[in-house]
Specification:
This protein is mainly alpha-helical. The chain has helices spanning 15-20, 35-41, 45-59, 74-90, 108-119, 141-147, 152-164, 183-205; strands at 27-28, 64-68, 94-96. It starts with 14 loop residues before the first helix and ends with a helix.
Length: 206
């Protein structure tokens, strides 16, 4: 729904839509971009508590978790203590997560280059969009346990959610839609427009 009806630069949804489709879902307080963390970044703890409480009331006490992340980002280090307090105030369970944008730690440089390609920027540009951490990779259970060693229940709850979730992934099923195109049309387009399209794509990617 956020993509189909609420898309404005990014997929968006409102509280009414959350309430309508909340049944059977497990939710978290979100990352730094979420409403709870945004309130904390503005040093507005009462607002953050109110928003987290509203999410809890929508999804239910057993289905709403306070999400804890630690990528070494200063904003997370500043707001994590407040998240712990929110969890205590609401009686909400904790959940340890790690943003995943590449598989291995060594992939962070390649990911950074990919960001430059996607935004049309140079690696040397100090003002370009970038991730301010190299920790957005698939961490092992041991790494996560060590990172959140002071709150082990936050890691325990990841298994709890996995056991509750009902997800079936068909790896051999191609979910992409097919759009049949007559072979004559393909040949005609290739002959007439191929070089122009190639030059346009090259200029855009450059």
């Amino acid at each position: 729904m956020a993509f189909l009806e609420g898309y404005y630069y990014k997929p968006r949804l409102d509280w009414e839509l959350l309430e309508r489709y909340a049944k059977g879902l497990i939710a978290t307080s979100g990352c730094l971009g979420g409403v709870v963390l945004q309130a904390l970044l503005q040093d507005n703890y009462p607002k953050a508590l109110e928003l987290a409480g509203r999410l809890q009331s929508i999804f239910g006490e057993e289905n709403f978790f306070i999400e804890m992340q630690d990528h070494g980002i200063p904003e997370q280090l500043r707001t994590n203590p407040s998240l712990l307090q929110i969890a205590k105030d609401l009686g909400a369970p904790l959940l340890a997560t790690n943003d995943l944008h590449y598989v291995h730690h060594a992939d962070h440089e390649m990911h950074d280059a990919l960001l430059c390609i996607g935004t049309g920027s140079l690696v040397a540009d100090p003002n370009r969009f970038r991730f301010h951490s190299d920790q957005h990779y698939l961490k092992s259970a041991a790494e996560m346990r060590y990172l959140f060693r002071d709150i082990p229940e936050a890691c325990d709850n990841t298994l709890l959610i996995a056991e509750r979730a009902q997800v079936n992934i068909e790896f051999d099923n191609d979910a992409l839609p097919e759009f049949p195109i007559p072979s004559s049309s393909v040949k005609l387009r290739t002959r007439r427009c191929g070089p122009v399209v190639a030059r346009t794509q090259f200029s855009r990617s450059a």
